[in-house]
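Methods — Computational structure assignment.
A single polypeptide chain was analysed. Its primary sequence is given first, followed by the predicted tertiary structure written as structure tokens.
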Amino acid sequence: MKNSYKILIGTALLLSAAAHGAARHAGPGSGEEITTVETLRTDSLVRAGRTMRIYQKLDMPYGRTLRKTAATGNASTYYEQDIDKYPTNDFRNSLTGVVAGLTVRELAGVPGMYYGGETARTALYVRGFSPAYIVDGMPAYITQLQLDPEEIESVTLVRDVADKALFGSRAANGVLHITTRRGLTRGRTIRFGFESGVSVVDRFPEWVDGVEYARLNNQARINSGYTPVYSDEAIAGFARKDPNDLQYPNVDYRSMMFTDTRPYYKANVSIDGGTQKLQYSSYIGYAGEGDIYKVGSKADFNRINVRTYLKAAITKDLDIDFGFAGGLTFRRQPRYGYGSSATIEFENALSDVLTVPAVAFPLVVSRDEETGNTIYGVSSTYKDNPYASLTQNGFSTDRGRSGVVNATLTYDLGSLVKGLKFQSYAGLNLFNMTRIGKNPDYTAVIYDPATGESVKTSHEGTQVSGKSNMGKWTHQGLYLHEKLSYEYRSDDHRVGASATYYLESVERSGNSFRERQQTLIGTFDYAYREKYLFQAVINYAGSSMFRPGKRFGVFPSFGLGWVISKEGFMEDVRWIDFLKLRGQAGILGHDTFGSQELYEDYYVKSSGIKFGPYTTGYQWIGSTNAYQSYVNTISRLGNPDLTWEKRKEFSIGIDAMLLGNRLSVEAGYYNALRDGIITDMSGTLPGIYGMDGIDTYENYNRIRYQGWEAALYWSDRIGEVHYTVGGSLSTTRGKYLRYNESVVYDYQKVTGTTLGAYRGYVCLGKFTSREEIEASPRQLFDDEVQVGDLKYADLNNDGLIDSNDTRVVGNTSPKVDYSVSINIRYRNFDLTVVGTGRAGCVTAMTNRYFWNGWSTGAISDFVRDNIGGDYPRLAYVKATNNFQASDFWLRDGGFFKIQNVELGYNVRFRSRSAVKGLRIFLRGANLCTISGIKDVDPENVNAGVTTYPLYRTFTAGFKFTF
């Protein structure tokens, strides 16, 4: 009785914090109102009472809602105001440090979101896996169905096996279950928001200018026994920094082509309202940001989202839900290069900027005064002019169109059997992207300063008259489910059961087949006095990936919970308000939807023998045709026994509210076995089998994942200051239990090692003398090893250093991912600070920023500043020995970032005012990084080297509520 009272008190606190809130509908077929959902949308509560989440309701699949206090798993639901604090056009970044158990890694500062790759900009991980996205009942590629935080009602992270089984096999990697705005059961709310700001490049690795390049290149040539090519006169000429100097050009391509800032903007309007019989919601939003090109055609990203939802009670027993969403995206960018194409043109441009040295050739050789044609410079080594490729090779526009329609019919069969309901759902998801643009060419020559003559190149100034289609991407998904559910409640008992049939069919570009799945999901739930909890889920799943007879599998799972705080012996333990022990175990089937029909043999057609005289090109006398025969060759040997990969998992944990509901604790352990991973076995078969070049697959590899998760938050007040502080951490360790491999030495085995293991040579230091070189095992990477080169360990003691001497020398997967946050509210002001970090891993400094300095290529600041130290011997002829994967190039990969800061002020209006509220805010993202890695971003060392750099973003905005 004591703890029931405290739960009611906690709920009352939630209700009181939403003085202006309105009741929000729970979802299709729930028949309940989640008052706390609208309450949790109120900023004041989240900042002052995040600990109350243990009393929340969870939004689960197929219209199912469940109180977290009665759940046997570790699912958690988050709301719009939780994630609408981070200034970004990729809503996944807004989950950073907010969703406990979810690791968000920002990889690149690509404007907007790129349709073709889920991880081109941002990657999400749950217990070592990339979770699936379920939006309003249907699986979605989140880069195609792009969302604004303002159109999201709730996001539920699902990670335990029985909870995942509610979604079927699609959920084996975990799920982010997203529900968009559902409308209100009372009143109407109109909201208008606007936000604008600027993104500033955080770390953009620097490269030396022409003067430093000439000096370093001279030194490299001397070290390799060559004569320097740049005289003092040439270096003095480079110091003039004239990009068009025909004799001594010095071109700073980066400063000429790229800038360090880009604009950011967002605006949206939403209307929510309704009654008990009719709820509606409409949303329209615009989001955009610029690019960091300084020259070339217009470059930016713009997105418009439209969404509407309607739920109507047709009769007292029949409800109909209807949702529609449409999206338009426009990505404009210069076309870089003639006759070539890249999804993200910036990456090609950046590659050339970091390759072509500043002194390679003059930017412009001459200009034709009559025609206005500019003749650009190139060289025999570097055949493209980066500046000209960016400014003269045209443009492209990616137009993305997405459309989603879903409808749910819910019929209450209580007139037949009390608690019986039927639900029918249909959803259609369409996406289309086309790229249209122009790709002319410029005129370029190779200029010889010694003779003053120019040599023509393949760049001949080709022009095009109109736009052309440069690419297309399509996606089409159909999703259906039928659900029959039953629920019974009494004072002591709660019983629930359901049977759901789920079907999906997906077609998309790049696949010559349809991805098809069907699943029958059966569930049973029982609770006695909400104290002893039991959950069972069984999946009967089928996939088109396997042959008939192997397509279907049965996958059971179950969960148990014990609410200890409801026991009589806890009555006098006053510092414990709520305490629950929970656990789940089971098996899930996982369909990767990779190559299809691997159970069948696959043949390829190839050219065979040509018939006819060789001297006439195989043409018979009197004929102009060559007679070509063709042969069919087996490329894949089918395996009819292929079947589902199985995920065997269990987890156990506790949920607790302590010290007067001020301290919340969630902690748990998980263990997951990936068994029967579909694996190409061709590389492990002996040559005597005659299977060279022929693929064959088995359910073979096996990996075990295990780790700990914890989240602690403390909420309290000091006078008028309300605050919440806390954080979360998770550990993940994956180990190969079986791996298809064929190795000579045990220390090279993958089996028994952990995921993320970095393999390379063990570096013993640098050679300091010729005598040391002569006395050491022979290193086979170069003809000769020099003093200053790296020295490696001979692991097999054969007197040679080769590929047989590599082993695990580090691990790139962090042992710990963590987040910390603080929320403070004082009167009308509030402050939120979120930080994230990782620890216990290494980062390999092996990209082109660290591995350069030889031949005529550009030279980075890292090489200039670390010769003889963190960079080995500088040489004109590449010392391949020094640029091998080894522990010499590993650094501590741990870091901590202040990811998000928001300062807000809430203006209150009189009750009769048309304006219900005004919120003014300042936001910042990626503000500070603490790491031992300085030159590049530790979150992704390739940012600014092979792809867009990461940014610090500063914005200001407001939100009106009417």
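Note: The radius of gyration is 32 Å.
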